[in-house]
Design brief:
- Helices cover about 40% and strands about 15% of the residues.
- The protein is α/β, with parallel strands linked by helices.
- It has a domain of about 120 residues: Glycogen Phosphorylase B (Rossmann fold, 3-Layer(aba) Sandwich).
- The longest helix is centred in the middle third of the chain and has 22 residues.
């Protein structure tokens, strides 16, 4: 099986995927990575094919003026930089039978859908799992009451459960994806066009 691993984040997001890649390779699967530029050479040193996604996470973390604790800064960065670069990199990635993403990966699910292959998302830290125990990581105050944490997760659900669809309406060869079946089922169920 050809597996495309697409982690995005810090070493805490990439290193567990490297362990997964080794396990897959030991079972005779072919593994390729699309990941932050600052990890490409490290992953290649473990004898895996790897291509950068156009973002150097380490540079971003050290950049003066990067307000990583600001939801506004993060949203602007995601929309203007990260999401377009992820879509561009993943659209150029080799064909795969399965795409696996983790960390701050916005494009992999859409690319998998456009290619007609399964997608799996993994998470290596409990703070990304919606619960009353903690708010989302970008919330500055991490000691809120459980009911407020649940409310924040609920209000943010539309943004986290629907990955951006910027290029999902195109297949890798540029042909449009036929979505009439999905539209028809919504209309038949009494929904809008």
């Amino acid at each position: 099986m050809r597996v495309l691993l697409a982690p995005h984040g810090t070493r805490g997001d990439v290193q567990p995927m490297l362990a997964l890649a080794r396990g897959l390779r030991d079972r005779s699967h072919h593994v390729t990575f699309v990941l932050p530029d600052n990890f490409v050479e490290w992953v290649r040193s473990h004898r895996f094919e790897a291509m950068g996604d156009g973002v150097d996470v380490e540079h971003l973390l050290r950049t003066h003026g990067a307000k990583l604790d600001s939801a506004r800064f993060q949203l602007r960065y995601f929309l203007d930089t990260l999401i377009p670069r992820q879509f561009d990199a993943l659209s150029r990635a080799p064909d795969a039978d399965l795409i696996v993403g983790d960390g701050v990966q916005f494009a992999a699910a859409s690319i998998a859908e456009s290619r007609g292959v399964p997608y799996a998302a993994v998470g290596f830290c409990p703070c990304i799992v919606p619960s009353g125990d903690a708010p989302p990581p970008m919330v500055r105050t991490q000691t809120l009451p459980r009911w407020i944490n649940r409310a924040i997760w609920t209000l943010g659900r539309p943004f986290t459960e629907r990955p951006p669809q910027r290029r999902a309406d195109r297949k890798p060869d540029g042909r449009a994806v036929d979505r009439r079946r999905r539209s028809r089922s919504r209309t038949d169920a009494g929904g809008g066009p």
